User: What shape does this take?
Amino acid sequence: MKPFEFHRAINSDDVFKHISTTSKYIAGGTNLLDLMKKHIHEPNTIIDLNSALSNTIEQKNDGIFLGAMTTNTKVTENTIVNKNFPLVSKAILAGASPQIRNMATTSGNLLQRTRCPYFYDTNIPCNKRKSNSGCGALNGHQRMAGIVGTSQNCVAVHPSDFCVALAALDAEVFITKTDSTTEKIPFKDFHRLPENNPEKDNNLSDNAIITGVFIPNNNFGNTVSYVKIRERDSYAFALVSVAAALEIKDDKIKKVRLASGGVAHKPWRWFEAEKFLKNKKASRDNFIKAAELIVSKTKPLPNNTFKVTLLKGAVETALMQCLTNTSNG
Amino acid sequence: MFEILKNKGRIEGIAKVTGKAKYSAEYALPNLAHGVIVGSTIPSGFITNINIEEAKQVPGVIDVLSYWNKPEVSTFDNPEKSKKIPAFHKYFHTTKINYSDQPVALVLADTLEDASYAATLLKIDYKTEDFNVNFHESLKDLELKPFKAERGNLEAWQNADYISENEYTIAMEVHNPMEMHATIAHWTAENKLSLYDKSQGVNGVQWNLGRFFDLPEENITVNSEFVGGGFGSGLMTWFNTVAASLGAKLIERPVKVGLTRPQMFTMVGYRPTSWQKVKIGANKDEKLLGVLHHAAHNQSKYNVYSRDLSGITSKVYAFENVKRFTGYSPLNLPIPTWMRGPGDSSGTFAVESAIDELCYKMNADPVDIRLNNIAPYSMDSGKPWSTHYLNECLERGAKEIGWDDRPNQPKQLKDGDWYTGYGVGVGLWNASRRNAGASIEMKRDGNIIVRTAMTDIGTGTGQAIVNMTHEFLGIPREKISIELGNSIHPKSVTQGGSWGLSSLSGAVDAASTALKRKLADYAWGKSEVTKLDAVILSDSGVAFINDQKKSVSYQDIFQKYNLNEIYVEEYSNAGGEEEKYAFCSSAAHFYKVKVNVVTGKVKMDRMVIVVDGGKIINPQAAANQIIGAAVGGVGMAMREKQEVDLASGRLIGSDFAGYHVTVNADVPIIEVSFINKPDYNRNPAGAKGLGEVGLLGSAPAITNAIYNAIGKRFTNLPVTPDMIV
Ligand SMILES: Cc1cc2nc3c(=O)[nH]c(=O)nc-3n(C[C@H](O)[C@H](O)[C@H](O)COP(=O)(O)OP(=O)(O)OC[C@H]3O[C@@H](n4cnc5c(N)ncnc54)[C@H](O)[C@@H]3O)c2cc1C
Ligand code: SF4
Assistant: This one.
């Protein structure tokens, strides 16, 4: 990789002191180092955030706050997370490998880059890597590509599992900008669709830092499930995944959340299907109808139509699993 | 008889798990420089220029080796000699590019970091040409040629009661042993080359480099003491070895060249993409009558590998009629090579699937039909099998998996969205034996060192030598040490093809006998003892069985003859037994799968494998071989597929994240057992090789089980979740 300078920042002011157009932040490094080795990012300066940002998990009255530097493993081992937000642990544990999760952080997971194979080969055109260079995947292999919200410029998907759960649970991303002002972005608006500028994965402004993620309380309890269809049982990204959460009262669905990974440039919420299920009976029939509604909204590419069938099965299975999970726990 | 060595581990085990074992890339030579190979970005054409100016600005960069400044090698002045060098050793002697990532330069620097960075700064100009990387398209124009003589004829079974016919494809599978290939090359004198090289056969590397540099073999030493997995990737001498040697010559410093993981995908071979068509027929009595087998696989334009996938078709079953056609498509792809169960594992997938398909048509039991049709003798050679226990493997395996619970028709065992199915597949491999050498050196205290050039590629060869030597001589294991994987030791065949142990046992036996002879002569007078079988060596001296009186201590012998050590060296090879017998190892794979028809998930529920590998020298190592191979079979069936981008001709997703090797989470505890009956016709240890049979038959056992579960016949591997739903 290209030689670089390394700064271990001690607080956010210190972070911003070292930024430039060629600097990059590092958290766990599990994505950034790969990107550097493959010459996709070639920063001159690396700013280590580990000592500058929180790595604690705080329970609040209205939810839970995950510091940006909490590792994925730490989140899955937290008792409050497991009690009140089991969907989060399920999603994280469905991803990567224990070694990677030990290093990977909350903020790094949000900002990891796509796994489109063409993005990783600098000898093949890719608009996300280099604006207006073309898109290798558009007429190529599309197993890892999207089926909703793709554009002619990019058909890549966001690869995270964790983020699918966060999208489902209406989390918020806490941000500090370079002028030291802060903002909160609702999770569903944090990542973006490729449209005409796929080089931008999300709506974070230049060099802003994520300080943490807040997840509001919910009444889903254990009636949640994360189904991930992938080519091996560990250490593989999703072909499609579904996070489902149900709140059932008097045999009726009071509240429902459905989100997917592996289908779009951002973790994707299925709002219409949620609306359809609301106040209906939690039955397989209704789940199948919801799944059908979901897939009717997809627009697969020529070489990944199979994802539609898989998605349908995953939605159905996830919703059914919510019910068995409740009875189990 | 060999005692069962439960939990005794391996002689090199501690060194490996404590990091003391040194692999080729780990030798620290003074003044070592690092070389990074740069590959072409185009799949076809010519390099027209390499601009190295920017790369040379990087501090620590020493030079950039390429076509334009390669050191003089006398071989190339002699057209006859030059012709003999394979094209894939001549990448720095040509500007022609035949595949993407073909090595075009070696950047040499003081550190790996400097070399890697500078490697990104080369400016290479190409003149591109048309290319073809599409195997399945290429089949259209491919003319298949008859393979081997026809047995019987096609007409004989054209009216068979039952016939099934299908086409089969298997995706390109790449080599990914844990240790990546690496070489350190060091010219210790003008004409003397010392290599540390990841390889399955040091003598092969010695020979290849000798040919390249026009040097006698003794001028080249090759060390591969520890090898982190081979699976066939280390059978050839690849370009990293040549490049390091040329680099070291150019800059007159030792040079290390290690491949990166993505380079492993293009520079050390792979199992090529294949296509097959198999038609088989049987009569009402469940007798298999005939088989017609068409097969083809891709090659590289640097066409050095061809393997007939249908070789196995005439071996396992008693087909009286066998007709085969074969072909190869040279494409603009890297060079394929042997990969565990080369050829036969692909052919076996097709044949074992076809038999399964036939069973459903004729309502036959897949185990019975196999049992009833095993070739009673080698129908290729006409010779009797020396030993062959495939029937016992099948019988035992069926019992262990609970074959009686298998429904005769698919879709019978259902639990929610999950269906359960059972499948069987068998594997068979020639149990061959080749030339091998071993020496034994005994010291005054009775400690011995056994040496051989053969490598231990994770197969447990080292411990096997200890076990065999102990068995042959009687010396306690603690007093036996080994040195292997180095060309300074007695020459041996490359480790591979399941012949390593079989070959080596002959050499160790011969050396042991020679040592007994010497000691007996010293102890009791020359040729006094004729029955060497009765001589045994203890920890302190040499004795005659049942006659303790005659025992003489090593101390006395060494003293009396004023010796420092006793040294014997012997070589052995297959002999007259090959005139009389045919030899094979075999295995039966019985798998139980659960298939979710909604999510497409296939869960391996049980894997029972019963193996005939002759006498088992080290049960742990043997089981380890079978387990690893079977996991490879699971990969072939359900995951491994290297994609090629048709637009650029490049491999895509070629790393461990993109290419899915099967992991522990994907397999259950694999249940392996051995027939464990010796074949003393094969070699003095009675062991037949078993490196390949764990993989052969594994993939079809899975697809057959999936069929039994859900009634879908999969003929294109790998079977991924999208294909299930
Ligand atoms: C082989 C493999 C398999 C994987 N499989 C999965 C999977 O199945 N599912 C899944 O979800 N993930 C998977 N991952 C991805 C893994 O989860 C991510 O790599 C990880 O979450 C990234 O976190 P990190 O802390 O290491 O990020 P880094 O690599 O340190 O950083 C990633 C990016 O985020 C930026 N960044 C980090 N923190 C901040 C911050 N606080 N503010 C602003 N910018 C910041 C960095 O500048 C960088 O650009 C896999 C990774 C690998 C290598
Ligand atoms: S899909 Fe997006 S990431 Fe992939 S090649 Fe096209 S532009 Fe690049």
